[in-house]
Amino acid sequence: MPSQPAERAQLTIAPTTAPTIAWLLRGDDAYGPRRMAATLSEAVRDAGARVVCLAFEEGDFAEERRRLGFEVRVLGLGRPTSYSGSLLRKASRFLALARHRRRAAPAIAAAIREVGADALHFIYASYFEIASSAASLAGVPAFWEMPNNVGGGYPFGINRRLYHHRSARRGVTPLAISRSVAATLGPGRAPVEVCPLSVDPRLFDPARVVPIERRELGIPDDAVVLAVCARLVEDKGQGVLLEAMLRLGDPSLHLLLLGGPLEGPLAARLRETARGRGADGRVHLVGPVPDPERYYHAIDVAVNSRLVPEPFGLSVVEAMMMARPVLVHALGGPAETVLDGSTGWHLQDPSVEGFERALRRVLADRPRWRSMGDAARSRALAEYSSPAHARRYLTIVERTLAARR
Q1: Hey, where are the domains in the chain?
Q2: Rounded CA separation 392/176 (Å)
Q3: Backbone angles phi and psi of 337, in degrees to 5
């Protein structure tokens, strides 16, 4: 599909006002949070701001930041525990985080002061108490880039109330990655900014990537290839999508799955399902890949098959930037990024029957795939490129700093 090479726009801030931002990392960050931190921090640095990475512990992501010329300080504080499981389990982890905060927050505050940071940026919700306390101690604002929806399983919405109370008290600005995520936090004392994620248009450029060819993946040239770029876990919906595809009875349809683990129970079930239906040659499990942009040349339509609302769906924007139309669940972030019937398709019911109906609609639009892909790339360049993201983000940072001054 024809595309014009994307030149990365530069956002320059006057040296007298360019902020220094401390980016709080885990050190071995992976998957979505890693891509979030990498893309925005690099775009912000390209825009003229100074970015200093503060890592809880050493890891491959911290090392990658060093190789790219970032100043990295490893604090040796140990990785904070994450929230998961039942309310009782989350309560116990909250107590563990409180103990960690008493030790870690002063150390992070000291590092913020030492590097002369004007603000602190963090991603994980489990870092909220530690990061917000550290920023408050250091006397700087904090920006919480929210990667997920705020869960509603707490009595009386106590988690939302706490987030708003702590944010207002400690100078934290929540940055929702979609309007959908902002809605899960709800109204309260702290103003929530919507700052959608982005991808680097230099990296995700169909005219510049060195593509993976279909023959390297064992896919015929005349196949119709659907692809999902996501971890192989139940709620990502790969199993439901596969069943829907097989029900169509079209031997030209192939499914390419980028993500792992390849040795997990879902991967085993997908292989068994394909084998039992005589379609094992049409399902291609590649595993996690560091360069997803190289695979889009081999696919026709990207699919975000997540069964529950996706907070944003970074792989959706990556596919759009690579000039591919995308089928998405019509709830959550992807429903905001993909324009139904123009840059892709919305799926109302993420069941096997719903996906089957949606795939029939996708196949009926086959003559329009090229123009839809071009429209998807144009939209991604305008709304979800990393330079545009950096402009939005730094405008929020500068406005916040000016208000404090």
Answers
A1: 20-198+385-404, 214-383
A2: 12
A3: -85, -35
Task: List the structure tokens of 191.
Answer: 């103003």
Q: How far apart are CA 82 and CA 93, in angstroms?
A: 7
β-strands 253-258, 344-347 pairing: unpaired
233-292 pLDDT per residue, tens: 999 999 999 999 999 999 999 999 999 999 999 999 999 999 999 999 999 999 999 999
Which residues sit opposite 53 in a β-bridge?
Answer: 23, 72
* Distance, CA of 139 to CA of 171 (rounded, Å): 9
CATH number belonging to the domain at 214-383, selected among 3.50.50.60, 3.40.50.2000, 3.40.190.10, 3.40.250.10: 3.40.50.2000
Long-range contacts of 348-356 (CB under 8 A, 24+ apart): 350/237, 350/240, 350/305, 350/306, 350/307, 351/240, 352/240, 352/243, 352/244, 352/247, 353/244, 354/244, 355/237, 355/240, 355/241, 355/243, 355/244, 355/245, 355/305, 356/244, 356/247, 356/248
> Residue 278 has which token pair?
């005589």
Note whether 20-198+385-404 and 214-383 share their fold.
Answer: yes
Q: Which fold has domain 20-198+385-404?
A: Rossmann fold (3.40.50)
What pLDDT is attached to residue 303?
98
How far, in Å, CA of 343 to CA of 360, rounded?
17
Summarize pLDDT for 134-163 with one digit per residue, the tens: 999 999 999 999 999 998 777 778 889 999
Contact 97, 89 (CB under 8 A): no
